[in-house]
Write a structure and sequence with these properties.
With 291 residues, the chain is of the alpha+beta class. Among the domains are: 34-138, Immunoglobulin-like (Sandwich); 157-254, Immunoglobulins (Immunoglobulin-like, Sandwich). 15% of the residues lie in helices and 38% in strands. It is built from two helices and 22 strands. The strands form six sheets. It has a six-stranded mixed beta sheet with strand order 4-13-12-7-8-9, with no helix packed on it. A five-stranded mixed beta sheet has the order 15-22-21-17-18, with no helix packed on it. A hairpin with a 5-residue loop joins strand 21 and strand 22 (247-254). The chain is elongated, with a radius of gyration of 30 Å. It starts with a helix and ends with a helix. The relative contact order is 0.12. Residues 37-143, 148-250 form the Ig-like domain.
Length: 291
């Protein structure tokens, strides 16, 4: 086969969907996708769910070789996952990739209204190829508040320290939650954090909010960090595992006197009041004795 014929064959392989070429006088059907990655477009491009439920956005990538499949949120161009790793502090996002399948599905747990929008499954070819999936979320007012499922009455979350946490304005709020769920292999349980009735938004414009999660055979430890605490960060914080009872603490962001000083002041005031009362009682008894 001459050089021109080889070049023609290569061009057909790269540009045709179903090419028919002639090699040594024999007609051969060639599918160029066998050489290049592509999306097996059999999954729905529109996914609907309601607040508090889970959503799975499906992506089947064929013949990726040593390339990487990623998920990106279109509204802020935030890379959520790459290969099997998650690149967001929001623990609700994860990749479903059972080996050795071609499926790279994005799972979103406890879906919130802000999750609605366009997500792209991408393969890092040159140029990059992508497939968009639109997630629709029903209005929160039409659905009941999400209740975390409880699989075992013995499994429970515990937040370290006091039930009332006091921090100064501008400092860091640090809350650590332990979940005593034992399993082998290490527990895949996810942990959500609520501030009041809303899930903590790690991608909010406020910034400075992060999560550190450690999973072992003994359970899961989740540490919530909120830097540069503002008065609006005060309130009830709840650690919500997906397979155990939740736990809550009350956070107080102080703009002035430290609570220890306030408690000392209160004790001093109580002591003074007690002394004055004793003095008054002694005076009355003495007066009555003189009569």
């Amino acid at each position: 086969m001459g050089l021109l014929a080889v070049q023609k064959l290569k061009k057909l392989l790269m540009n045709s969907v179903d090419a028919k070429v002639c090699v040594a006088g024999v007609n051969v059907n060639v599918d160029p996708r066998a050489e290049r990655p592509y999306f097996d477009d059999v999954s729905p491009r529109n996914v609907s769910t309601v607040v508090g439920q889970s959503a799975v956005l499906r992506c089947r990538a064929k013949h990726i070789g040593n390339r990487t499949v990623s998920w990106m949120r279109k509204r802020d161009l935030h890379i959520l996952t790459s290969h099997i790793f998650t690149y967001t502090g929001d623990a609700r996002f994860s990749v479903l990739h059972p080996e050795p399948s071609d499926d790279w599905d994005l799972k979103i747990e406890y879906v919130q209204p802000r999750d609605a929008g366009v997500y792209e499954c991408q393969i890092n070819t040159e140029p990059k190829i992508n497939m968009a999936v639109v997630l629709s979320v029903e209005d929160e007012s039409l659905t009941p508040a999400p209740q975390p499922p409880v699989r075992s009455s013995a499994a429970a979350a515990t937040i370290w320290g006091s039930q009332d946490v006091y921090v100064k304005k501008g400092s860091t709020i640090s809350l650590t939650c332990s979940v005593n769920v034992h399993s082998s292999p290490p527990s895949s349980a996810s942990v959500l954090w609520y501030h009041g009735n809303a899930v903590v938004d790690f991608d909010s414009p406020r910034g400075g909010i992060s999560l550190e999660t450690e999973k072992t055979e003994g359970g899961t430890t989740s540490k919530l960090l909120v830097t540069k605490a503002a008065l609006t960060d005060s309130g009830n914080y709840t650690c919500v595992p997906n397979n155990a009872h939740p736990a809550s603490v009350s956070v107080h962001v102080l703009n002035g006197e430290h609570p220890a000083a306030m408690q000392t002041s209160n004790r001093a005031s109580s002591f003074l009041t007690s002394q004055l009362s004793c003095a008054a009682l002694t005076y009355l008894l003495s007066s009555m004795a003189c009569r």
